[in-house]
Amino acid sequence: MSESLNIPVKTLGVLDGMGPAAGAEFLRLLAKDAPARNDQEHPRLLLISEPAVPDRSTAIHQSLKGLSLTPRDDPTPLLRSSLDRLIEWGADVLAVPCNTAHFFIDKFRAELTKPLVHIIEATVFEAVSMNKGGAWLLSTSGTRASGMYQAYAKSVGYRFKEPSDAEQERADKSLRLVKSGDIPEAGKVLRELVEELWSQEGIPVVTACTELPLAYSASGLPAEREVSSLKALSNACLRVLYHR
């Protein structure tokens, strides 16, 4: 007698394209880590890849300076309409593999008619599980300036150590190299940065920009010392989809 199929009953709606390489890696992780024995046991996905969303870090910096965002510069309308479209198509659960976008999504998250698996909450959960003593926070400059990670970590009693402004610029350089397709160079830049951070304190590194896990993978740094926001989001989605 054959075993019954382990088919998720929920459909996951994914909004990616911010950036495309990170979104593709998120989908790869979902496929790799799903507890599926055949095609039929993998989760049903609905996907919008929307690279036209305006730059999130630029918009955050403008907002924090008290500047009004023009319709051309504001990511919020396209993020909202895309998530609503996924719901209209039949998504039961939503995920957005872009940390910085959540600054804008959080403004309307409570209005969404379906639940969102929140990348920051998922990543902090993984960081606490790896090392209760804290971790380095590497993200976009916009995510760092927004304080999203710091605020959520504080709410659960977790400690993040942040790079200096000069070190932050090197993290931004690494993620921009991933966006431009030069992942080997991105890995080299990130390796030099992380090794300097570890010379200050040898705690794990949270790659809290979804480009940075790709750079970390190319860096030659030990995988067991990274908390990947992409993998954290994938793990959290799979827990919801398979009720684990």
Characterise this structure.
- The structure is a single chain.
- By secondary structure, this protein is α/β, with parallel strands linked by helices.
- It has two domains: 11-118 and 232-242, Rossmann fold (3-Layer(aba) Sandwich); 120-229, Rossmann fold, CATH 3.40.50.1860.
- Helix content is 49%, strand content 12%.
- The protein has eleven helices and eight strands.
- The chain has helices spanning 20-33, 56-64, 76-89, 102-105, 119-130, 141-146, 148-155, 165-179, 183-200, 212-217, 229-242; strands at 11-16, 44-49, 93-95, 116-117, 135-138, 160-161, 205-207, 226-228.
- Strands 2-1-3-4 form a four-stranded parallel β-sheet, sandwiched between helices. Strands 6-5-7-8 form a four-stranded parallel β-sheet.
- Helix 5 (119-130) crosses helix 11 (229-242) and helix 8 runs antiparallel to helix 9 (183-200).
- It is globular, with a radius of gyration of 18 Å.
- It starts with 10 loop residues before the first strand and ends with a helix.
- The mean pLDDT is 96.
**Backbone structural class:** alpha/beta
Order of helices and strands: EHEHHEHEHEHHEHHEHEH
Biggest sheet: strand arrangement: 2-1-3-4
Strand content: 5-15%
Largest sheet composition: 4 strands, parallel
Count of helical stretches: 11
Kindly state the percentage of residues in helix.
Answer: 40-55%
| Poorly predicted runs | none
Total DSSP E strands: 8
Overall CATH architecture of the largest domain:
3-Layer(aba) Sandwich
Radius of gyration: 18 Å
Shape: globular
What is the CATH third-level topology name of the largest domain? Answer: Rossmann fold
Number of domains: 2
Q: How far apart are the termini?
A: 25 Å
Mean pLDDT: 96
> Which CATH C-level class of the largest domain is it?
Alpha Beta
